[in-house]
Amino acid sequence: MNIKAFIKKVLTHACVYFSIGTLIYSIVVMIVHVDDTEVLLSASRELLLFVAALLFALANGVISMTRLHGVLKLVTHYLLSLFAFCTCIMLPISPEGATMLVGIATFTVIYLIVAGLVALFRSRYKAKADASREYTSQFSKPSKK
After folding, report:
1. What is the 3-state secondary structure (H, E, C) of 7-19?
2. What angle separates helix 43-63 from helix 70-85, to the nearest 10 degrees?
3. Domain ranges of the chain
4. pLDDT for residue 37
5. Which terminus of the chain has a lower count of CB atoms within 10 Å, N or C?
6. CA pair distance 59, 53, nearest whole angstrom
7. 6 CA to centre of own chain
8. Strand ranges inside the chain, DSSP E
9. Model confidence over 65-79: pLDDT tens digits?
């Protein structure tokens, strides 16, 4: 994948993630019944939400790269996702040390659960695709016609 297509993919995914995050935020505001004069997120916090979406999209772009080995992809994706979570979500709320560690631990547990589920679904999908494919021997002699 060339660099222009990679940037386009990352930006497109970032916009989708930002839209979903803003939608979730709007739904929470409607449920909590916050007045229009009492805004929960300022413009700078909304910008941080976009930066987080951009970093998450970059992490997903890295995991889809074919040049990296599977474990390296996963570790890089985890570190970029953790960086996005810590800098854009945890740090703005100014947690104390123990709270920050609980946030990182919670993020890591959720990440491991989701990564495990994704790996399970991918292996099942690949097994079904392999089972439905017709076997052709690579070692048999070609038939003469």
Report:
1. HHHHHHHHHHHHH
2. 180
3. 3-94
4. 63
5. C
6. 10
7. 15
8. none
9. 777 787 888 888 999
CA end-to-end span of the chain:
42
Structure tokens at 56: 């998450």
**Cα distance between residue 84 and residue 53, in whole Å:** 8
* Cα-based distances in Å from 114 to 39, 100, 111, 143: 32, 21, 5, 48
In this structure, of 16-20, 82-86, 140-144, the range with the lowest mean pLDDT score is 140-144
Amino acid (1-letter code) at residue 89: I
State the sign of the Cα–Cα–Cα–Cα dihedral 59, 60, 61, 64: positive
Task: Look up residue 29 and give its two tokens.
Answer: 């505001």
CA distance 15 to 54: 8
The model's pTM is: 0.72
13: number of Cβ within 10 Å = 19
pLDDT exceeds 90 at position 32: no
